[in-house]
User: Fold Transposase from Photobacterium gaetbulicola Gung47.
Amino acid sequence: MSTFTSLLTTHYAEFIHHYGDRITPDIHRAISAMRRCRTEQAGCSQWYCPHCHHDDRLPLGCGHRSCPQCQQRTASEWLARQEAKLLPAEYFMLTFTVPAPLRGLARYQPGAFYAVMFQVAASVLKDFAHRQHHGLSGFTMVLHTHNRRRDIHPHLHVVMPSGFYHPQRRQWHKGKKGFLYHHKALAKVWRARLLDTLAHHPTLRLPPAPLPTEWVVDCRNVGRGLPALQYLSRYLYRGVLPDKDIIKFNDHQVTFRYTDSQTQRPATRTLPVVQFLWLILQHVLPKGLQRVRDYGLLHGSTKTLRLTIQLMLLNLPTWQLPEQTKPQKAKRGCPCCQHAMCCVGSTRPR
Assistant:
């Protein structure tokens, strides 16, 4: 059992007493899944060794995307899929952030607010791409809901190639070297469109507090794109705070470490246990919300065109499209003979 899950189980009654009126159905489902994860309540998987005929039972994980014990395999599979989509061009990582007065919308109406963030940021990038080159481009968006201190701080990371495909000419253009879009122009349009969308939204309301006139959209070169994807994969499917960063805890307090964004040096934060649990659980996403979205040439519907572009730039005939690899069955080493065991089924409690 992970450290966070152990703390949640031990202090569950106290946590419900303090935060019960603020817990949404999505957080309730996440808590229930994490407390059940890898216990007898979750069931077990059945393993068989064809070499020595040894059989074994292992407790099942809950599979919830907020669980710190699950999703490690999901992260590696996502990274492999994204790596296969890489195009031969310079890549940029853009970060769309919102000012502090709007972060309350993410806390109390996360589903609607995050959907608006995706919608507006995608429209901004599509329009900038159309005005600049009138070709086909693409990008991948990833939603992060927290800063390094794990406070509510919603922002969108976007990984985007500078190149584009001209469909009429059937040509790939590498784009301008070292430049994608001007960050101040992006920030200005991002601010105007997001505020206009929120002003006309049926359920979201702009806060009465004055909003900053200048917003921030970061745009930086990340080479061929793989380092940015690797960075995102480390944070995508591991939960909000990995166990290795929880450095000290007792019945009253929890201390975790993080990297200070200003000094880039290690720092620590200490909170009462129930406050720490709420700090992490408030980042549970609404059910059905996709936190990773692909657009344009990186969308699944354009796979054939994307592969054609990749092979064309490698000077290979387009009929040599790689075959899809079938997912491999789960395997583990046999504790008796060290040969590979195969998962032959699972049992779940009634």
